[in-house]
Amino acid sequence: MSFYSAKPGDLLIDAARKGDVASINQLLGDGDGVDVNVADERGFTPLTIATYDNHIEAAKALIAAGADVNRQDVAGNTALMGVSFKGYAEIAQLLIDNRADLNLTNGTGGTALLFATMFGRADMIRLLLKAGADATIRDAKGMTARDVATQQGNQEVLALFGA
Question: What whole-number distance in Å separates Cα of residue 86 and Cα of residue 137?
Fold first, then answer.
Protein backbone atom coordinates (compact mmCIF):
# COMPACT_ATOMS: atom_id res chain seq x y z
CA MET A 1 0.00 0.00 0.00
CA SER A 2 1.42 3.42 -0.90
CA PHE A 3 0.49 6.73 0.53
CA TYR A 4 0.56 9.99 -1.37
CA SER A 5 2.57 12.63 0.37
CA ALA A 6 2.11 16.07 -1.15
CA LYS A 7 5.20 18.20 -1.58
CA PRO A 8 5.21 21.52 0.31
CA GLY A 9 5.15 23.42 -3.01
CA ASP A 10 2.02 21.54 -4.10
CA LEU A 11 0.42 22.33 -0.75
CA LEU A 12 1.24 26.02 -1.21
CA ILE A 13 -0.31 26.05 -4.68
CA ASP A 14 -3.40 24.32 -3.32
CA ALA A 15 -3.66 26.81 -0.43
CA ALA A 16 -3.42 29.70 -2.91
CA ARG A 17 -6.18 28.15 -5.04
CA LYS A 18 -8.41 27.98 -1.97
CA GLY A 19 -7.43 31.43 -0.67
CA ASP A 20 -6.29 29.74 2.56
CA VAL A 21 -4.16 32.48 4.13
CA ALA A 22 -3.52 30.53 7.34
CA SER A 23 -2.06 27.59 5.39
CA ILE A 24 -0.06 29.93 3.16
CA ASN A 25 1.48 31.61 6.19
CA GLN A 26 2.15 28.28 7.88
CA LEU A 27 3.78 26.76 4.80
CA LEU A 28 5.96 29.79 4.20
CA GLY A 29 6.83 30.29 7.85
CA ASP A 30 7.58 26.77 9.00
CA GLY A 31 11.19 26.73 7.82
CA ASP A 32 10.80 23.89 5.31
CA GLY A 33 12.18 26.06 2.56
CA VAL A 34 8.99 26.27 0.48
CA ASP A 35 9.66 28.52 -2.49
CA VAL A 36 6.98 31.21 -2.64
CA ASN A 37 7.51 31.25 -6.42
CA VAL A 38 7.11 27.50 -6.95
CA ALA A 39 5.29 26.80 -10.21
CA ASP A 40 3.07 24.04 -11.54
CA GLU A 41 3.53 22.46 -14.97
CA ARG A 42 1.91 25.47 -16.67
CA GLY A 43 4.19 27.86 -14.86
CA PHE A 44 1.43 29.14 -12.56
CA THR A 45 2.78 30.31 -9.23
CA PRO A 46 0.75 30.53 -6.02
CA LEU A 47 0.43 34.29 -6.61
CA THR A 48 -0.87 33.82 -10.15
CA ILE A 49 -3.40 31.29 -8.92
CA ALA A 50 -4.54 33.38 -5.94
CA THR A 51 -5.02 36.49 -8.07
CA TYR A 52 -6.78 34.60 -10.86
CA ASP A 53 -9.23 33.22 -8.30
CA ASN A 54 -9.73 36.69 -6.76
CA HIS A 55 -8.23 35.81 -3.36
CA ILE A 56 -6.81 39.22 -2.41
CA GLU A 57 -5.82 38.32 1.16
CA ALA A 58 -3.93 35.28 -0.11
CA ALA A 59 -2.25 37.49 -2.72
CA LYS A 60 -1.23 39.96 -0.01
CA ALA A 61 0.27 37.16 2.10
CA LEU A 62 2.21 35.79 -0.87
CA ILE A 63 3.52 39.22 -1.85
CA ALA A 64 4.54 39.90 1.76
CA ALA A 65 6.48 36.61 1.65
CA GLY A 66 8.37 37.74 -1.46
CA ALA A 67 6.30 36.46 -4.39
CA ASP A 68 7.53 37.79 -7.73
CA VAL A 69 4.67 39.89 -9.10
CA ASN A 70 6.22 39.83 -12.58
CA ARG A 71 6.76 36.07 -12.84
CA GLN A 72 5.56 34.78 -16.20
CA ASP A 73 3.96 31.40 -16.86
CA VAL A 74 4.96 29.19 -19.79
CA ALA A 75 2.85 31.33 -22.15
CA GLY A 76 4.43 34.52 -20.82
CA ASN A 77 1.35 35.67 -18.90
CA THR A 78 1.61 37.44 -15.55
CA ALA A 79 -0.77 37.79 -12.63
CA LEU A 80 -1.57 41.34 -13.81
CA MET A 81 -2.55 40.08 -17.25
CA GLY A 82 -4.90 37.54 -15.67
CA VAL A 83 -6.66 39.99 -13.41
CA SER A 84 -6.87 42.52 -16.23
CA PHE A 85 -9.05 40.35 -18.42
CA LYS A 86 -11.05 39.14 -15.42
CA GLY A 87 -11.64 42.71 -14.22
CA TYR A 88 -10.29 42.37 -10.66
CA ALA A 89 -9.35 46.01 -10.15
CA GLU A 90 -8.54 45.74 -6.44
CA ILE A 91 -6.02 42.97 -7.03
CA ALA A 92 -4.63 44.80 -10.07
CA GLN A 93 -4.02 47.83 -7.86
CA LEU A 94 -2.30 45.60 -5.28
CA LEU A 95 -0.01 44.22 -7.99
CA ILE A 96 0.70 47.69 -9.39
CA ASP A 97 1.46 48.99 -5.89
CA ASN A 98 3.98 46.16 -5.59
CA ARG A 99 5.80 47.02 -8.81
CA ALA A 100 4.01 44.89 -11.38
CA ASP A 101 5.41 45.73 -14.80
CA LEU A 102 2.48 47.23 -16.69
CA ASN A 103 4.08 46.66 -20.06
CA LEU A 104 5.40 43.10 -19.96
CA THR A 105 4.33 41.13 -23.01
CA ASN A 106 3.41 37.48 -23.29
CA GLY A 107 4.27 35.08 -26.12
CA THR A 108 1.79 36.73 -28.48
CA GLY A 109 2.74 40.28 -27.54
CA GLY A 110 -0.27 40.71 -25.26
CA THR A 111 -0.12 43.11 -22.33
CA ALA A 112 -2.41 43.68 -19.37
CA LEU A 113 -3.90 46.68 -21.21
CA LEU A 114 -4.52 44.65 -24.36
CA PHE A 115 -6.26 41.95 -22.32
CA ALA A 116 -8.42 44.49 -20.49
CA THR A 117 -9.36 45.99 -23.84
CA MET A 118 -10.16 42.64 -25.49
CA PHE A 119 -12.60 41.89 -22.69
CA GLY A 120 -14.09 45.41 -22.52
CA ARG A 121 -12.97 46.07 -18.93
CA ALA A 122 -13.31 49.86 -18.92
CA ASP A 123 -12.52 50.27 -15.21
CA MET A 124 -9.40 48.16 -15.60
CA ILE A 125 -8.31 50.14 -18.65
CA ARG A 126 -8.69 53.39 -16.71
CA LEU A 127 -6.63 51.98 -13.83
CA LEU A 128 -3.87 50.70 -16.13
CA LEU A 129 -3.68 53.92 -18.14
CA LYS A 130 -3.59 56.03 -14.96
CA ALA A 131 -0.75 53.83 -13.66
CA GLY A 132 1.22 54.41 -16.86
CA ALA A 133 0.47 51.47 -19.15
CA ASP A 134 1.79 52.04 -22.66
CA ALA A 135 -1.16 52.10 -25.08
CA THR A 136 1.16 52.07 -28.12
CA ILE A 137 2.47 48.52 -27.58
CA ARG A 138 1.52 46.25 -30.46
CA ASP A 139 0.80 42.54 -30.15
CA ALA A 140 2.06 39.88 -32.58
CA LYS A 141 -0.73 40.83 -35.02
CA GLY A 142 0.37 44.47 -34.94
CA MET A 143 -2.64 45.58 -32.91
CA THR A 144 -2.61 48.23 -30.19
CA ALA A 145 -5.27 48.39 -27.50
CA ARG A 146 -6.97 51.20 -29.46
CA ASP A 147 -6.95 49.02 -32.58
CA VAL A 148 -8.64 46.22 -30.63
CA ALA A 149 -11.33 48.59 -29.33
CA THR A 150 -11.88 49.93 -32.85
CA GLN A 151 -12.14 46.43 -34.29
CA GLN A 152 -14.70 45.50 -31.63
CA GLY A 153 -16.64 48.72 -32.13
CA ASN A 154 -16.52 49.31 -28.37
CA GLN A 155 -17.15 53.07 -28.19
CA GLU A 156 -16.93 53.26 -24.38
CA VAL A 157 -13.48 51.66 -24.38
CA LEU A 158 -12.39 53.54 -27.50
CA ALA A 159 -13.18 56.83 -25.76
CA LEU A 160 -10.67 55.91 -23.03
CA PHE A 161 -7.93 56.07 -25.64
CA GLY A 162 -8.94 59.56 -26.71
CA ALA A 163 -10.73 58.53 -29.89
Answer: 20
